[in-house]
Amino acid sequence: MTNGNVTFERYALSFTSGALLSREAGIAAPLYLRERDWARVRDRIRENNLLQSRTTSSGFRLSREIAQRLAVLTDSEIELLIEATATERGHLMWIAACRRYALIGDFAEEVVRERFILLTPALSYDNFDSFVRGKALWHSELNELKDSTMQKIRSTLFKMLTEAGLLSERGDILQAVPSARVIDALNVSSPSDVRFLPMIVPGRSAR
What is the CATH number of domain 86-201? Predict the structure, then answer.
């Protein structure tokens, strides 16, 4: 969609297969380091039903989804993911989702982190709905979605936050405390991808 001379790339919204996919990442990441090819990783997963999918179609969707998310991580991040603690893996998989899906990244930076910094940690579905209404001014694809699809997107996103340890069951934003090696990995990007986490980095601007 365009607004004046500014073009806005359509949001990819196909992230409702599973949620954070941390377990699946633990299966797919070592395969990638061996194959170095995501297409072959998808094939190996499907051929051997490594994700234990109930149907062929669900196995296809899930293998494609985990490959697409992990593909946005660097090789060093993939290596870190394999040996990561549960907390580190949760943070890395949340970052992967934010990189893969601009809608998630924008929500993480503009709503989740912003509310954390402003000491208003409660996060509700209404916050997401307001965010979507604002983005729909420049992303007409959001207006084209059925209500049921939008509800699925919203519930999946909140489930991701919870599984990443960034949102409590009662709906409070939890401060991210990433390990030093995760921070080092995220700081390679410019701007640093710590912007996707609800935290304030010492020595840097809160924004």
Answer: 1.10.3540.10
